[in-house]
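Quick entry, no commentary yet.
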Amino acid sequence: MATHYPRHILLQPIHSRVAVRKDKPQGLNGWRLAGFASLAVPIYAAQMPLAVYLPAIYAQHFGLSLATIGAIFLAERVWGAVADPLIGTFSDRTRSRFGRRRPWIVAGGIVFGLAATALFFPMLGVTPLYLAASLFAMYLGWSMLQIPYLAWSGEISGRYHERTRIVTYQTVAGSAALLLVLVLPTIIDQVRPQDGALKLAAMGSVVLVSLIVALPIALSAFPKASAPDQPVVRLSTPRAVALVFNDKLLLRVLASDLAVTTGQGIRSALIVFFVTFYMGLPQWASGLFLLQFVFGIAAGPIWAQIGYRIGKHRAAFTGEVIQVAINLGLLLVVPGNLPLLLALTIAQGFAQGSGNLMLRSMVADVADRHRLETGHDRTALFFSAFSLSIKAGMAIAVGVALPLVAWLGFDPKTANSPEALHGLLLVFALGPALAHAVSAALVYGFPLDQASHEKVRQTLAARDSALAPAE
């Protein structure tokens, strides 16, 4: 049953005499933020191998077909569409002496670690069933870990730009993880380029070691949650889904992020094939991705500063337009033309993350507005939808891009015709360009900016104060 608040409290106005303060991007202790952000390392460290290397290695080294791998990824997303909102809803209404988020993060970390062991260190014969079971368990643990973690990051501070700062720390930590994960295959390519099992084991080691180290550090970074205690509301899965799809601003953020992740996922899923077969430079396959993320680490703070100055949605729009231009530029790349590909890769590094960083911060702002309108905090539910858009974008990229290039005649196990390689180029370039254009269109003119969010926060503070029991 919903909780009803007096109308004068729920809709308490913000008078014109209340000025919007300048929300400076500082406040929380930097060391604590770094410790909290460390949990992004294993989360991000697993993301890139799943999107980039795992499909290629399981196809080339273990003999699974591209169509089978794509079907497994898509099937997992159907499972995730049910599991993620449930995890978000249960996390929002969890009450324990350790808080709402910590029990889920601990349990998720255990499932995540066990599944990662099976996926990166195959101990049995690799079959479609083995891949499906390991992948499903991996994503379940990932959701149990990531969704409460993202929701908690939105509750540490309610300030508009401080949330961008929190996400920036997480993005930089995640980019550093990606850098480390990409260094290892690059080194292995120079020594044993055909050893897919060794690459999997190296990347899996990074995931597991960083998880063991980061989990206790992140859990102890902020002992007390800043979010106010909210009434527990029992939601069925259909009702939870309806809440997500009835919020138009949240839908815009989710759809924009889905497009961002799909574009990035297409590029990630095909870059090994593109560099190896179209460019004819297999020794550069891992190195180019490494180069991209070296520049991506520096890009996080740069985009944060841009967001402080022009606002989150404008920064996201700008970054997505730049991404469109970069991906269209790939159409000019011809086999062996490494300098142009290097330049576009560096530009991609600087541009990447702008959308992900800003959109993740915007979800917490939308959740604040939802709490103002309904009286209920459903931050984790909203982030579960955001997490779903991330993983759905990755799965759509693999589930569509790989079968599409296969339909166009590309096969990594045989010699390819010029037509098949040209088809690979078109999907690699135009797929991300179209996705980033859609993302830019969706985020353009987003109405919940700093000024309007400040009014939401002030009204929430006034209402919470009015509802607080007298001492």
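second:
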Amino acid sequence: MAGTASHGVVWVLIEYPGGWPANGFEGLDLQPETKKLVLSAAQASRARVVLVRRPGRRRRQAHKHWAVLRHEDSGAYRQQWGTWRHDEDLAEIATALGFPGKLGHPPVILVCAHSQHDQCCAVRGRPVGRALSERWPELVWECSHVGGDRFAANVVVAPDGVYYGRLDAESSVATIDEHLAGRIHGDYLRGYTDLFPAQQAAVAATLRRFGPAGRNDYVVAATFRDGDHWRIRITGRPPHPALVDVELQAHRAPPCQLTCRGPAMSSALVYELTSIRAV
């Protein structure tokens, strides 16, 4: 599972309590000009557009929320929030994507529950969403597709950019509780979205070997590749190891069904740990 987080550091959240089409925001029946504007601005910023709603019973409301979340290279997290009532109000998202946003907001916890994209996400995600919202009602949202249906239930902490997978109600509460306390564990970790797959797998291996750490306590300093062999050097902040060398071997896993809805068998790329040592 490590090394499977979707790459990206900018998120656009759009609250939409109604049913979500299989292709998410693109499939909504909204004003075409506004939708095109939002999608073009998101593409230019390399942002991911995700539909969100609060877990549990859906309530009709006059104003819905939108947000632009950003994880900077420095490790800083920035957010810009707004509300919308009419389709044209969503044009503010395009403007917000042009500014860095504000510091100081708490993170957002996204639980994939997109049944029209893959029923596994809804069946496994909704109990996780309910359990997390009972503990952190202001932070938790159900969301549309974030990738990796086979790892449902999937949880993403944004703008931290941390993907977790194969969670249930009990393990999700424990995992997020540790995350919010600055202790990310490797057990359910899929990866950090600012890293590429082999780097994600290396960080997950480091967390499993040397124990939990904060989101920015480990930094990938160098990456070397020789065919399917990867060597990744990671720097750590005290009290964690100052330097860690991780070696991985990439290979294709046996063909399997990667999504509940997809009938075709496919082979996923897996990164197997071959060596890890503190330098």
